[in-house]
Amino acid sequence: MCAQSRAERDSQVFGEGSADPRGSGPRAAATARTVLDGPEIERALTRIAHEILERTKGGDDVTLLGIPSRGVPLAERLARRIEGVEGRTVPRGSLDITMYRDDLRLAPARALGRTDVPPEGVDGRLVVLVDDVLFSGRTVRAALDALNDIGRPRAVQLAILVDRGHRELPVRADYVGKNLPTSLRETVTVQLSEPDGHDAVLLGPAKPRPGEEG
Q1: Across residues 182-210, what is the average pLDDT?
Q2: pTM above the 0.90 mark?
């Protein structure tokens, strides 16, 4: 699929009003249904936190980096859960990927996010990238490029709240809150209490293509 076609497809699938081009944002279609509510999101994050601790043998050298926008509060929540178990501070921050996206010349101008690297840095550490929705894999590719410019981690893992499928690149999450089969004619909307006032994951129809009715 060429870049132009991909950008057009994304604009049709994700619809307007989303704060994130992969379907996350404060507004959902009127016919959207809830696939994860607040308590279910909390349980999924608790499970991911324990899986991180198990796979990293206590997480002594783990750094969590959230991908703006909703990956950042998710990384913060995971860090607090790990701290509650281990009784020590877990380095966390944010990793802006805006200038590393492969659709910059095709999409409208985007506001820059914030890259906030903990004082420990990332060199020699196990970095867990955190995001809300995994779709094509292109956001993760951009995040890896951005991470490469700030240091050289020992290893990189990926934690995702929702994996909706339809990968365009060979990217697979290490930690997944929910695998959600979707069609390309659906949109996934993640709402979190930090930016949106409440927690929910919604599945609804995408915006119709130009010229289509209803």
Answers
A1: 90
A2: no
pLDDT surpassing 70 at residue 9: no
Sign of CA dihedral 8, 12, 13, 19: positive
Q: Which residue has the higher pLDDT, 23 or 154?
A: 154
Instruction: Identify the CATH assignment for 6-14+32-204 out of 3.30.530.20, 3.40.50.2020, 3.40.1410.10, 3.55.50.30.
Output: 3.40.50.2020
Segments making up each domain of the chain, as ranges: 6-14+32-204
- Give one word for 124, left, alpha or beta, with left for phi > 0 and alpha for psi -120 to 50: left
